[in-house]
Amino acid sequence: MKLLITLSSCAIALTSLTQAATCEKGCGKCDVTSRAAALLGGGQVQAQKSVHYKITGMKSEESAAQLKAALTAVEGASVEKVCHKSGCAVVKYDDKKTSKEVIQKVITSKGLTVAGERVAISVLGMTCMGCSREVSMALKKLDGCLTSEVSHKTGKAVVTFDAKKISRAQVEAAITASGFKLAK
To answer: What are phi and psi of 73, to 5 degrees?
Structure first.
């Protein structure tokens, strides 16, 4: 049953892509298969990761625009958001073409500082403020955890951490050590 659903999903996606790749002039002579393959990225589905950085030093729209242009020039990266007011940059990237380290180097090359990486982690089993407090206390014990916002109502822990000191895996381990499970 699962295989059938997966195949149906692929067929629907391919049909949608083929329809999207239909000849714009309506002549019917164009190679729609090539256009569909181009839309699929050469026939390969590209897995993208996303990174959200807290950045210091962006003081104007101009500096944000310069950073956005520099990040856009990185092969395999696409910029979702750069904001000087909130001091953040959200970048999607193909880890086969680039890395978080390359993205960070681009940010620092513009005279800016990566103050932290921000992640949102779904936490299972939190039912009250005591649960939220338990997770918050576990995160505060981590050297390198800059901020954390934990809510039992949303089931999320939003954590900003210094990636030079700790990793996402260590943040997740602290949450599970506090007695809660992570949603996959």
So the answer is: -75, -10
Structure tokens of 73? 């020039």
How many C-beta atoms surround the C-beta of residue 40 within 10 A? 15
Give yes or no for a contact between 103 and 135, defined as CB atoms under 8 angstroms apart. Answer: no
Q: Are 166 and 144 in contact (CB under 8 A)?
A: yes
Residue 142 to residues 3, 27, 133, 183: CA-CA distances in angstroms? Answer: 42, 63, 15, 21
Q: Give residue-wise pLDDT tens across range 154-170.
A: 999 999 999 999 999 99
Q: pTM here?
A: 0.67
CA distances from 47 to 44, 58, 97, 172 (A): 9, 30, 11, 22
Structure confidence by residue, pLDDT tens digits, 62-107 = 999 999 999 999 999 999 999 999 999 999 999 999 999 999 999 9
Residue type, 161: F
Helix segments in 44-128, DSSP class H: 61-72, 100-109
Residue (of 114, 6, 8, 99) closest to 57 by Cα position = 114
How far the first Cα of the chain sits from its last, in Å, is: 22
Q: Is the pLDDT of residue 179 over 60?
A: yes
Judged by DSSP in three states, 72 sits in helix
What is the Cα–Cα distance from 184 to 177, expressed in whole angstroms? 17
